[in-house]
Specification:
Oligomer: single chain
Largest sheet: 5 strands, mixed
Structural class: mainly beta
Strand order of the largest sheet: 1-2-7-6-5
Low-confidence stretches: 1-18, 50-100
Mean pLDDT: 81
Number of strands: 25
Order of helices and strands: EEEEEEEEEEEEEEEEHEEEEEEEEE
CATH topology: Methylamine Dehydrogenase, Chain H
Helix content: under 10%
Strand content: 25-35%
CATH class: Mainly Beta
């Protein structure tokens, strides 16, 4: 199918027909390069219920996987987000009252969003559900999820848009939020008092936060992780690949500067963190080597669909895990300040120019940065 570039910088296409059997026949019936349960139009179909198989180890990234990344924000929604600002870093937010506006980047499953220096949002990539149709700003941070996006205004209010089948794009009211993270089919926000509020899909309890207060959050595929004040990482939701076993420490505290340096990113079914010491740890699904971290010290990390990417302390990008579409093959001899891994692509902010560089799957223009 020929795709047309819309004014928002994203691609639109006809929705899936969902005729009987289309969600389990192994075919790309609507020619959108999304197969069976990986197509959001099959979300909730009987053939896709309870599909927890994340063990495929091949590099054929075009078919068969039920879930991809979240959101950075630094993914698939990540402290990054993806997912990712979880990747740029996915959801790494600055203080609400400190201008100038930051430049932030977050890769979702098949789309990306960035905040320009004037605080306005720009999104591009897959746009069947309006996930690239960003509202007017200014914004402080952004997190691109599965097929929706969320952003934090300077007022502390949230805005979400895109796919809303499970209510994941129905942001709660209030102006006391300090962070937001968009996952696959759910989203979470962190209030100024440290409490967490989640909304959207909850079939694995991914939107039922643990009790207590937290410093950072990251929503992933079917799980969510958050950093407690004692530096324990607490996760909730699906646990078929030990993705809830976050690092535990024997107590501790973070200065405000150390908190800014701490990165937490949840991907499809794995998660990664960078401590203030610049040490990196990943846990969860590992069928593609996505939690087998390289040596060195790192300043940013993003857990994607079936791969992970990070920035070394010298600015060089390193990626590991699945690489069938080049999503784990960053440019060489280029230094970056932030990175965000999507489902099958990755984007990063150039240190020299601040330009966005992307690599990997580009079927909907998600790796063709504006």
């Amino acid at each position: 199918m020929m795709l047309a570039l819309t004014g928002s910088g994203c691609f639109d296409e006809d929705p899936e027909g969902n005729a009987p059997g289309e969600c389990s026949d192994g075919a790309d019936n609507d020619a959108d390069h999304l197969y069976d349960c990986d197509d959001p139009d099959c979300f909730g179909a009987p053939a896709c219920a309870g599909d927890d198989d994340d063990s495929a180890g091949d590099d054929d990234d075009s078919a068969g996987d039920d879930d991809d990344s979240a959101g950075d924000d630094d993914s698939a929604g990540d402290d990054d987000s993806a997912g990712d600002d979880d990747s740029a870093g996915d959801d790494d937010d600055s203080a609400l009252d400190i201008p100038p506006y930051p430049v932030a980047l977050s890769a979702g499953d098949y789309h990306n969003c960035r905040i320009d220096s004037d605080g306005e949002l720009q999104c591009w990539g897959y746009n069947e559900y309006g996930q690239c149709n960003a509202p007017a700003g200014p914004f402080l941070s952004v997190s691109a999820g599965g097929y929706h996006s969320c952003a934090l205004r300077f007022s502390g209010a949230l805005a979400c848009w895109g796919y809303n089948h499970s209510g994941q794009a129905a942001a709660p009211p209030g102006e006391d939020f300090v962070q937001v993270s968009a996952g696959k089919h759910h989203s979470c926000g962190l209030h100024s008092d440290g409490s967490v509020q989640c909304w959207g899909a909850n079939e694995h309890q991914q939107s039922t936060p643990a009790e207590g207060t937290f410093l950072k959050i990251s929503a992933g595929g079917r799980h969510t992780c958050a950093l407690r004040e004692n530096l324990d990482v607490i996760c909730w939701g699906e646990d078929v690949h030990a993705q809830l076993f976050g690092p535990q420490v024997a107590g501790g505290t973070l200065t405000p500067e150390q908190l800014l340096a701490y990165v937490l990113s949840t991907g499809n079914r794995h998660s990664c963190q960078i401590e203030p010491s610049l040490e990196m740890h990943c846990w969860g699904a590992d069928a593609d080597g996505q939690i087998e971290t390289p040596p060195g010290q790192f300043t940013d990390v993003s857990a994607g669909g079936f791969h992970s990417c990070a920035i070394r302390d010298d600015g060089i990008a390193r990626c590991w895990g699945r690489d069938g579409l080049g999503q784990s093959s960053p440019p060489v001899l280029v230094t970056y300040t932030a990175i965000s891994a999507g489902a099958y692509h990755t984007c990063a902010l150039s240190e020299d120019s601040g330009a966005v560089h992307c690599w990997g799957l580009d079927d909907w223009g998600q790796s063709t940065a504006p």
